[in-house]
Design goal:
Distance between the termini: 91 Å
CATH class: Alpha Beta
Strand order of the largest sheet: 5-4-1-6-7
Number of helices: 9
Number of strands: 7
Shape: globular
Order of helices and strands: EHEEHEHHEHHEHEHH
CATH topology: Rossmann fold
Amino acid sequence: MVVIDNDFLSLLLHPKSRAPKDPATGKPIERLPDRVEKLLEDWEGDQEKVIIPTPALSEFLILAGDEASNYLDEISARRMILVKPFDEMAAVELAAIELDDRKTGSKRGNVTAPWTKVRFDRQIVAIAKVNGAKRIYSNDGEVRKFAGKLGIETVSAWELPLPAAKQTKMFDEDQTDETEKRAEGNEREAPPAHPAPVQRTDSGRAQGEAAGEANEESKGEKA
């Protein structure tokens, strides 16, 4: 079970949109569509369930505007995606998170974000916690910090691995077998001596052809 926030939901639905910047380079993330494609393939291969917390879904739909209903249909059509609410258990978890931070003297948990954003981010993390999520996909620094306090792994877009280089086979097994059979047949039918490879001369004629003509002329002189 993994969780994605509204930014990652947008990346999944629009992998070819403008890529966020990699903090390490200050430049847009390289080959982001390839990274997102690999992530989806890994999830499908692992039969992973992907949670969208309702606060994140709400934020995404607000940004979607008039297209919100279309996006809801697309999200609903993806069997791996589960929408999970900020329910009673999540509310209890959020309260515990804030009380722990208050004990350290900072109800915001030592982040500088506005209070409304702190509550929003904590709701995402609380939903992940009560649903047993092992990982949260988010580019948000506050989400990453709150998740880390609860021992939940976080992954950002710039940390997504690139797919391995694809290796294509020149022949499939059937073609290989057929090629080997033809090679064996050619060996049986081939003459003892093999002609040298034909190389082109400067004039465009084959050297093998030129040599053949020379031999014919030599035979004619001897006759």
